[in-house]
Design a protein that fits this description.
Number of helices: 10
Keywords: ATP-binding, Nucleotide-binding, Transport
CATH architecture of the largest domain: 3-Layer(aba) Sandwich
Protein name: Branched-chain amino acid transport system ATP-binding protein
Shape: globular
Bound molecules: adenosine-5'-triphosphate
GO molecular function: ATP binding; ATP hydrolysis activity
Number of strands: 10
Largest sheet: 6 strands, mixed
InterPro entries: AAA+_ATPase, ABC_AA/LPS_Transport, ABC_transporter-like_ATP-bd, ABC_transporter-like_CS, BCA_ABC_TP_C, P-loop_NTPase
Helix content: 40-55%
Radius of gyration: 19 Å
Structural class: alpha/beta
Pfam families: ABC_tran, BCA_ABC_TP_C
CATH superfamily of the largest domain: P-loop containing nucleotide triphosphate hydrolases
């Protein structure tokens, strides 16, 4: 039996006495695309923030490749092979697409500011390595022609794809994607499906994605976890989750109640 690459064990988080995550356990296997869905406020982003070290859980543990990462700084967790994108675009203003991508490797290199200031050979080598990795990542996502354009001049959907590419140049084991399909047109969604599968199959990266575009989740994910009000209410293959009565109630129950109170 293979062991989980990412294991979330009985994690609880509260803010100001309000429990936002309540005893969440999830095992994500290597090479899996895992969907994380649930109504607004279910706790999905909070869970990603726990995994990448932004929030410390009040209870429970998170293991990456068998090692506990709770209590480590986000930069250290990133160095252990965990990449992340956010709900809003995080590209740097005043930088080209290529330079934005290179920052994905700079965070992990060692020559740093002093090296840059003194133009040390080690710094120049790292720059070359970062540029090569950035160009490869751009080619991988089919956007090599965009290298010299200002990052923030791209469409919102393109910026999101660039951000995913930026996580890849650090050679991560796991990448967390927070609503990556926001801003993508219906036509682009099919291409996006393919990109996620290629990241898994060609780069060997395990993906966890929060997504409100349920069609994308059901098409591309191997396993889906559903949160509602901080609890895990379902977990399994897309077809099983889609027909789960608790999931239908969590989504439709809310919708029906809203319609009722509006009438
Ligand atoms: N730093 C914080 N301080 C206080 N409350 C917070 C904080 N972060 C999140 N919350 C609350 O925790 C709950 C879960 O929020 P979270 O953003 O994790 O939900 P979500 O499932 O990602 O929602 P959405 O789909 O709308 O992004 C919400 O009620 C939110 O207001």
């Amino acid at each position: 039996m293979s062991t989980a690459l990412l294991s979330i064990r009985d994690v609880s988080v509260g803010f100001g006495g309000v429990k936002v995550l309540d005893g969440i356990s999830i095992d994500v296997m290597p090479g899996e695309i895992r969907g994380l869905i649930g109504p607004n406020g279910a706790g999905k982003t909070t869970l990603l923030n726990v995994i990448c070290g932004i929030h410390a859980p009040h209870q429970g543990d998170v293991l990456l490749d068998g090692t506990s990462i709770v209590g480590l700084k986000p930069s250290r967790i990133a160095g252990l092979g965990l990449g992340r994108t956010f709900q809003t675009s995080q590209l740097f203003r005043g930088m080209t697409v290529l330079e934005n991508l290179m920052t994905g490797l700079h965070r992990r290199t060692t020559a740093g500011m002093l090296g840059a200031a003194f133009n040390l050979a080690s710094y120049r080598e790292e720059e070359e390595r970062a540029e090569e990795a950035a160009r490869k990542a751009l080619e991988f996502i089919g956007m090599a022609d965009f290298a010299e354009r200002p990052g923030t001049a791209l469409s919102f959907g393109q910026q999101r794809v660039i951000e995913i590419a930026r996580t890849l140049i650090g050679d991560p084991k796991v990448v967390l994607l927070d609503e990556p399909a926001v801003g993508l047109s219906i036509n682009r969604l099919a291409e996006f499906d393919t990109l996620l599968r290629r990241i898994r199959d060609e780069k060997g990266v395990t993906l966890i994605l929060i997504e409100h575009v349920i069609r994308l989740v059901m098409d591309v994910c191997d396993q889906v976890t559903v949160l509602s009000s901080g609890r895990r209410i379902a977990d399994g293959p897309p077809d099983q989750v889609r027909n789960d009565p608790d999931v239908i109630e969590a989504y439709l129950g809310k919708e029906l109640r809203a319609r009722h109170s509006a009438s």
